[in-house]
Amino acid sequence: MRKRALQYYIEPVLMYECKAWTISKQIQNKLEATDMWFLRRMLWISWTAKKTNERVLNEANKRRSLVRTIRKRQATFLGYVMRRGKMEHLVTTGKFEGKRSRGRQREKIMDGLATWLGPGKVSDILAAVKDRDLWRDMIANAYKQGT
User: Fold this and answer.
1) Which of 1, 15, 35, 98 has CB atoms 3.0–4.6 Å from 66's, for a disulfide?
2) SS3 for the chain, per residue?
3) Handedness of CA 143, 22, 131, 123 (dihedral sign)
4) What's the pTM value of the predicted model, to 2 decimals?
């Protein structure tokens, strides 16, 4: 019962508008920590109890899936936006006129999805988006691998 409450009431609120997030390693760690905090609270396991996260996941019969689900939603949304080809396409690919800002460039959604979907360049991913079946297969394979 509690597992369903977590899945149907808490996770959707946590993942609201996740399609537009840029997930860095730091944010990914925070999301995983939040997911573990929910599980520990659900199973009444205190932080002073010397239980590893893997053990807690085994007790809950659950795998870490929050970040993978977010990445899957982002990839699905990216496919929709790229096939549509309007203003969102320009924003996502970053093809604007003007000068780049100084310093290290910010991580883009495309960079995160390129690492999640596997080896390949961003240009290869943009080409794969056009074929809907290929794109669905790429998303499904990346989700199964859990990268």
Assistant:
1) 35
2) CHHHHHHHHHHHHHCCCHHHCCCCHHHHHHHHHHHHHHHHHHCCCCCCCCCCHHHHHHHHCCCCCHHHHHHHHHHHHHHHHHHHCCHHHHHHHCCCCCCCCCCCCCCCHHHHHHHHHCCCCHHHHHHHHCCHHHHHHHHHHHHHHCC
3) negative
4) 0.80
